[in-house]
Specification:
It contains 24 helices and 20 strands. The protein is α+β, with helices and mostly antiparallel strands and 599 residues long. The longest helix has 24 residues, at 570-593.
């Protein structure tokens, strides 16, 4: 019997008091000498072991292959608890102490407690969700996942298009409304108090003017059942303060920004409005420099990493687009397209990153002040906290500002070169996302890129090869390999997934730039099986989450790509190790798929 067992680590924290007492009553401590076999392949399971001290190696019964390495607070052999017989040998590499929980007791707990059993029986994706669901501020997290329904939608008051300006004003005042819906010949538009004020005071229209002449009939809508968070992003992107809510194409109400703000404690929409309303670079700078604080607030309150990334991507897009409007005269906007690349282009930022941007210009368009105005654009971004790109991938570099036909020729040259920097430049352009100007210019360029890469298997193999460049930070025994300075999670985990998926997406001519969306599309096309797709998604989100958690409080000169493994708890280390094994397996898949023999 042992009373010192730590019940705070998942999934043992899911056991109720009676079940914990059952564990304590039946738990024993076993001692093993160095090189002593703890479990023998082919034997029936007797115990689930949890390491107290020492190291244990999982290997084939002929010692030909090592599968994993277990250390303090790791458990083994879970597989045999359900399958009946051990598949591999487990050997103590040094003097080792283990808790031993009888298999009969373990299986009883699994059958009685579904949360406890799920943790052992499911894959990385489920483990990540189980751990994440128990962390952070659940009240705020619940808001982020709140769906749109009758409780947070305001009823829509509908008036006819013939209603006069004066009558509409009276209705708004009597019913204390900020907006009305206008029905004109079966079409619905929105009329706001601002519209009425503008018509009556600034334009001085007659009070008898029909409201059909004042309403906006280009309504933006959301559906009942969608996430409230997504409605907030939609309002942010379109710089509006309300959307209509539909159920099966029927308008059932209005969702207003003010009401959303009353529910959302981070006030991110207030920040979006400050960005949209900024008329000088100084005003925009004040808003831009609060972004990292917003991310810290969301992180500390337990908001899911995916939502943080979506929100940050939207805010960054709004900021850079506003800088574009402040630095590039409006007459040029319809003839040029500003594109962002790298993590910005994929929508996978967790902090404000380097400037990675370029420009597509309409063929034959004359722009004499181009260089001066693009230099100003880059300087403004620097003032807002976006440092220059170390590789000089910026609009003040003429290499990344070209007319459409020039871009097509450049891309053709990169494809013909087929290796080295040319392939990485191709990867950069492949992730480009249009955020300002004439966005159709980039769509045409992307279509041309896909056409030029069709049926080029050798070039695709060279393109995919960098995903295999960096060593997966796992030891020979399958444990996490980390230097004293920490683990470079970008090289060891994030880049292999991002670039490998990018290569598969290019092969399949998949349009989305976001890695998670690419994974989803590859799964639909059966290029990836469902389990692989789910594990890659969760591994990538895990790497982002661990990286963002170590950003706050920020340290001077901190490299946010480096994970301090010694600061992770047991659950995080366990998930990280499983995530890195997902990466290792994916790299093997890539090498086989693209026939890369030197891997």
């Amino acid at each position: 019997m042992s009373t010192d067992f730590n019940f705070q680590h998942p999934p043992f924290d899911q056991l109720d008091p009676k079940q914990r007492q059952q564990v304590s009553t039946n738990l024993d401590i076993h001692y093993f000498q160095s090189q002593q076999k703890i479990v023998t392949a082919g034997e029936q399971a007797s115990y689930l072991f949890i390491v107290i001290k020492g190291q244990v190696e999982e290997r084939a019964d002929n010692n030909a292959e090592v599968f994993a390495h277990y250390t303090v607070e790791d458990w083994f052999d879970v597989r045999s608890q359900f399958g009946g017989y051990a598949k591999h040998d487990y050997v103590a590499l040094e003097e080792t102490l283990c808790y031993a929980l009888p298999s009969k007791v373990f299986r009883q707990l699994v059958s009685e407690n579904s949360d406890f059993g799920d943790y052992f029986q499911r894959d990385l994706a489920t483990r990540h969700q189980l751990v994440e669901s128990r962390e952070g501020n659940k009240n705020l997290a619940e808001f982020i996942l709140t769906t749109i329904d009758e409780k947070n939608v305001q009823p829509a008051v509908v008036i006819e298009g013939e209603t006069s300006l004066q009558q509409a004003t009276v209705i708004m005042r009597e019913q204390k409304l900020e907006s009305l819906l206008v029905n004109h010949d079966g079409c619905f538009g929105m009329l706001t108090g601002t519209d009425l004020l503008h018509a009556a005071v600034l334009v001085q229209q007659s009070l008898d003017t029909p409201v059909s002449q004042l309403a906006n009939f280009n309504l933006i809508s959301v559906n009942k059942g969608e996430f409230l968070f997504n409605a907030m992003l939609l309002m942010t992107r379109n710089n509006i303060e309300r959307v209509v809510v539909k159920e099966q194409q029927k308008i059932i109400g209005i969702l207003e920004m003010a009401h959303v703000l009353s529910l959302f404690s981070t006030h991110s929409h207030v920040l979006a409005l400050r960005i949209a309303r900024a008329t000088t670079i100084e005003e925009l700078s004040e808003a831009a420099h609060t972004l990292n604080k917003l991310v810290e607030n969301l992180c500390n309150n337990g908001i899911r990493t995916l939502f943080i990334m979506k929100l940050l991507a939207t805010m960054n897009e709004q900021i850079i687009s506003r800088v574009f409007q402040l630095s590039i005269p409006h007459q040029h906007h319809n003839h040029i397209c500003l594109m962002v690349m790298g993590s910005e282009g994929r929508g996978e930022q967790i902090v404000k990153t380097d400037q990675d941007n370029g420009l597509v210009i309409e063929d034959g368009y004359d722009w004499p002040e181009k260089q001066q105005q693009l230099e100003q654009f880059s300087q403004y971004l620097l003032q807002l906290g976006y440092p220059p790109c170390p590789g000089n991938i910026m609009v003040n570099n003429p290499q990344w500002v070209q007319q459409q036909s020039q871009w097509s020729e450049t891309i053709a040259d990169w494809i013909e070169t087929g290796h080295g920097d040319a392939m990485m430049n191709l990867a950069i352009v492949l992730d480009a996302h249009a955020i300002a100007g004439n966005k159709s210019l980039l769509r045409r360029l992307r279509k041309d890129l896909m056409a030029q890469m069709a049926n080029r298997s050798v070039t695709l193999a060279f393109f995919a090869q960098p995903a295999l460049k960096f060593h997966t930070p796992l030891t020979l025994f399958g444990n996490i390999k980390s230097k004293q300075a920490g683990l470079d999670i970008k090289k060891g985990g994030i880049f292999p997934i991002v670039h490998g998926i990018r290569a598969l997406a290019l092969e399949q001519a998949i349009s989305p730039t976001n890695t998670l969306e690419r994974i989803e599309q590859l799964a639909k096309l059966k290029v990836l099986d469902e389990d692989t797709a789910a594990n890659l998604t969760e591994a990538l989100l895990l790497f982002f989450k661990l990286r963002i958690q170590q950003l706050f409080p920020a340290e001077s000169e901190q490299d946010y790509h480096v994970l301090k493994v010694d600061q992770l708890n047991h659950s995080q280390r366990d998930l990280l190790r499983h995530g890195l094994h997902v990466v290792k397996k994916f790299k093997q898949l890539l090498a086989l798929h693209f026939n890369i023999r030197d891997y």
